[in-house]
Amino acid sequence: MNQKVLVVEDDKIMAGLLTEKLAKAGMEVAFAVDGEACFKELEKNIPDIILLDLILPGVSGFDVLSK
User: How far apart (Å, rounded) are the C-alpha atoms in residues 53 and 35?
Assistant: First the structure.
């Protein structure tokens, strides 16, 4: 079974690189651009790991961690 990873990153280039590398490593990758999108993604599916940028627009990574 593939490990599920949620990438939360607002930088499009970094998000693309992370998503591509993780997918090539055989992981199932979901993506969110900010904290609010992260919460919506978590309602649908719980990943094995979250790669979370802390400085995000709107709901920050710090807010995600505290919730």
Answer: 9
**CB-based contact 35:67 (threshold 8 Å):** no
Q: Average of pLDDT values for 37-60? A: 96
Count, in order, helices (H) and strands (E) of the chain: 3, 3
CA-based R_g, the chain, Å:
11
Tell me the pairing of strands 28-32 and 4-8. parallel
pLDDT value of position 1: 73
